[in-house]
Design a protein that fits this description.
single chain, Rossmann fold, five-stranded parallel beta sheet, Sig_transdc_resp-reg_receiver, Bact_response_regulator, Response regulator, CheY-like_superfamily, phosphoprotein
Length: 144
């Protein structure tokens, strides 16, 4: 059995957060929740997170600033920014995807999460044995 993906959901609206948590847990995800940026940074720093889903309109630190902090910690983790007041393209952001809350259905949100959590962003790190094997193959090819 494959391990469950862990999603960090951040929203200051506890009802929205509760609905998202239920929706994602019933589809097999582990869900961590935070109601502000500082709480999200603490969770992200202490746990293995496969994807971040955050609202833009957070108190003290907006979702875009939060993503900036989280990308400094782990840039390969995909992050989705949502908003019910800003449309895609109206403001620059650091997220891997931007979704307007009213524009996509729960099924579309879940599908976007499934696709984005299936792979991490950024270059894959080569292991030392893999590098040694590559070097050995290169030497054999050049000697031939």
């Amino acid at each position: 059995m494959r391990p469950k993906k862990t999603i960090l959901c951040v929203d200051d609206n506890e009802q929205t957060l509760s609905v998202r948590k239920f929706m994602l847990e019933t589809r097999g995800y582990r869900v961590l929740t935070a109601i502000n940026g500082q709480e999200a940074i603490t969770l992200f720093s202490s746990r293995q997170v496969d994807l971040v889903l955050t609202d833009l309109g957070l108190p003290q630190m907006d979702g875009n600033a939060l993503i900036g902090h989280l990308k400094e910690i782990s840039p390969e983790v995909p992050m989705i920014l949502t908003s019910d007041t800003v449309r895609a393209g109206e403001r620059p952001h650091r997220a891997d995807a931007f979704l307007s809350k009213g524009c996509c259905s729960p099924a579309e949100l879940v599908e976007r999460i499934r696709v984005m959590s299936a792979r991490k962003r950024g270059p894959r790190k080569a292991t030392v044995p893999a590098l040694r094997s590559l070097a050995a193959d290169t030497l054999v090819t050049r000697a031939s």
